[in-house]
Amino acid sequence: MNLKSISLTFSVAIFAVLWASKHLIFSNPNSQYLKYFVDLGLTTSSISPIISLLIPFSFNINARHHHKKQDNKGKKVSICDDFQPGIPPDTNTTSYVCVDRNGCCNFTLVQAAVDAVPDLSQKRTVIWINTGIYYEKVTVRINKTNVTFQGQGYLSTAISWNDTANSSHGTFYSGSVQVFGANFIAKNISFMNVAPIPKPGDFGAQAVAIRVSGDQSAFWGCGFFGAQDTLHDDKGRHYFRDCYIQGSIDFIFGNARSLYENCRLVSMANPVAPGSKSISGVLTAHGRTSNENNTGYSFVNCIVGGSGRVWLGRAWRPFARVVFINTTMTDIIAPEGWNDFNDPTRDQTIFYGEYNCSGAGANLTMRASYVQKLNDTQADPFLNVSFIDGNDWLQPIDAN
Ligand SMILES: *[C@@H]1O[C@H](CO)[C@@H](O)[C@H](O)[C@H]1NC(C)=O
Ligand SMILES: *[C@@H]1O[C@H](CO)[C@@H](O)[C@H](O)[C@H]1NC(C)=O
Ligand SMILES: *[C@@H]1O[C@H](CO)[C@@H](O)[C@H](O)[C@H]1NC(C)=O
Ligand SMILES: *[C@@H]1O[C@H](CO)[C@@H](O)[C@H](O)[C@H]1NC(C)=O
Ligand SMILES: *[C@@H]1O[C@H](CO)[C@@H](O)[C@H](O)[C@H]1NC(C)=O
Ligand SMILES: *[C@@H]1O[C@H](CO)[C@@H](O)[C@H](O)[C@H]1NC(C)=O
Ligand SMILES: *[C@@H]1O[C@H](CO)[C@@H](O)[C@H](O)[C@H]1NC(C)=O
Ligand SMILES: *[C@@H]1O[C@H](CO)[C@@H](O)[C@H](O)[C@H]1NC(C)=O
Ligand SMILES: *[C@@H]1O[C@H](CO)[C@@H](O)[C@H](O)[C@H]1NC(C)=O
Ligand SMILES: *[C@@H]1O[C@H](CO)[C@@H](O)[C@H](O)[C@H]1NC(C)=O
Ligand SMILES: *[C@@H]1O[C@H](CO)[C@@H](O)[C@H](O)[C@H]1NC(C)=O
Ligand SMILES: *[C@@H]1O[C@H](CO)[C@@H](O)[C@H](O)[C@H]1NC(C)=O
User: Fold this and answer.
1) Which residue segments constitute the domains of the chain, with CATH numbers given?
2) What's the CA gap between 88 and 62, in Å, rounded?
3) TM spans, by residue (predicted)?
């Protein structure tokens, strides 16, 4: 336990924020972080409504001085006085550790908690993460198995960093969070990459929010924020439910086998002039390399919207496989729907399907010739968790 006593002026401001909003706080208002997030708020608020919702709580401390509690005047108070993580005791199958950036429990950094997880653990370790933005790059190495990140809500708990392809030996290593360990779970937390939004023609500016490379991973109520290449859904079998995923170009990409249920896919691609046929973004870039692999992305009961004029997917690799089922799409989807990476030889090998979707973007009349209008039989393998063998490994959300 590392209690920090802090001076009145600052602590009352923090209490005011905590009290009023139970949202994000910073322990040191003069830190680099603060300036960084102020800048971030200014540059992204116009295009990213959710980031702008999340960010103000992290730097608006000075603006809240008028909420001062006068009765505390002169006294030193601890920021941890009211801290109650409320995490359950360890059981035979689960251990709990706590992360709070103000130092009110076991760890102040998420990475420190991950490092403390025993290697190749068969027991689950739940890392309980308090509200706040954790400005750090986090890696869950291949030996850190059965780890859960439990946040307090995707709009109030986030892990954020700002590596780009240039700053990190390539796009694949730019993730703010990188997960290689199997059986990883995340609940009610956001993953963000806040590197500058790439300008057209920029080289090396791609910036991943999270790379998911471990098998049997599940994400419940999570947020994924980035501009380009947000969610590197790399390999293994993954489940995403009730998630918010934002980006512009290829913002869900990789060669995993994943089911996305009840998720919101929000394009922040640049708007195009009315009547223009240009494309400003792409939702998916699946990377299946052979039809012997059963990888692919299935989106079921999702909502697609946002800005720009975008494709549902483009064929990053020749055997890309993506289906949209029962999904509502706004008119940001271009009428042709998909793209073969401008390589017609891929038209015979890609598998792009749509089934029972609705909304202005789901009109199949003008779709590219290779798009499959799936019938009931063809849609069946993609409808539920059996697509990812979920009956063998996926636990219910409340199973910790
Ligand atoms: C937990 O493990 C202990 C020691 O192995 C055992 O005695 C106890 O019955 C176990 N409890 C449960 C709930 O399985
Ligand atoms: C975390 O803190 C709790 C409460 O102080 C303590 O019981 C537990 O041993 C700590 N765990 C670790 C891994 O430090
Ligand atoms: C831990 O992970 C292994 C494989 O990595 C898996 O077989 C096992 O079921 C997991 N245990 C729990 C408690 O999640
Ligand atoms: C993973 O664990 C194994 C067995 O304990 C060990 O040999 C190996 O060096 C570890 N790998 C990493 C990357 O930590
Ligand atoms: C990340 O942000 C820090 C703080 O603003 C800055 O110094 C650094 O250059 C940024 N890194 C990249 C790759 O943009
Ligand atoms: C996640 O957050 C939602 C909304 O705040 C809450 O209803 C739910 O219980 C939380 N679930 C978990 C597993 O954290
Ligand atoms: C990335 O690095 C290349 C080569 O050093 C450079 O030309 C380019 O401008 C950099 N991109 C960004 C976005 O900084
Ligand atoms: C894809 O399938 C080929 C041939 O079966 C196999 O060698 C390769 O390892 C598979 N790749 C992945 C990522 O599963
Ligand atoms: C499609 O959505 C409807 C409700 O709008 C639901 O009843 C139906 O089960 C969904 N189909 C699938 C395959 O999830
Ligand atoms: C198709 O979508 C409609 C809503 O748009 C829903 O009512 C219906 O249940 C869906 N059918 C299937 C088979 O999922
Ligand atoms: C679908 O698009 C075609 C061609 O643009 C158009 O004629 C038709 O009215 C559209 N259907 C619906 C239901 O909007
Ligand atoms: C669905 O489409 C496949 C492939 O075109 C076809 O073989 C099958 O008979 C169709 N099934 C139904 C129920 O229409």
Assistant:
1) 9-75 (no CATH), 93-234 (2.160.20.10), 255-394 (2.160.20.10)
2) 35
3) 37-59
pLDDT tens by residue, 112-171: 999 999 999 999 999 999 998 999 999 999 999 999 999 999 988 999 999 999 999 999
H helices present in 243-389, as ranges: 376-379
Taking alpha carbons only, the member of 337, 264, 270, 272 closest to residue 305 is 264
Beta partners for residue 129, in sequence order? 99
| 325-380 pLDDT per residue, tens | 999 999 999 999 999 999 999 999 999 999 999 999 999 999 999 999 999 999 99
**CB atoms near residue 321 (< 10 Å):** 25
In short, whether 84's Cβ falls inside 6 Å of ligand 2 is no
Which ligand 5 atom is the nearest neighbour of the CA of 36?
A: 5
Question: Which mutation among 301, 355, 382 tests ligand 9's pocket best, with the greatest number of atoms within 8 A of CB?
Answer: 301
pTM: 0.87
Are the beta carbons of 147 and 180 closer than 8 angstroms?
no
Residue positions counted in the chain: 400
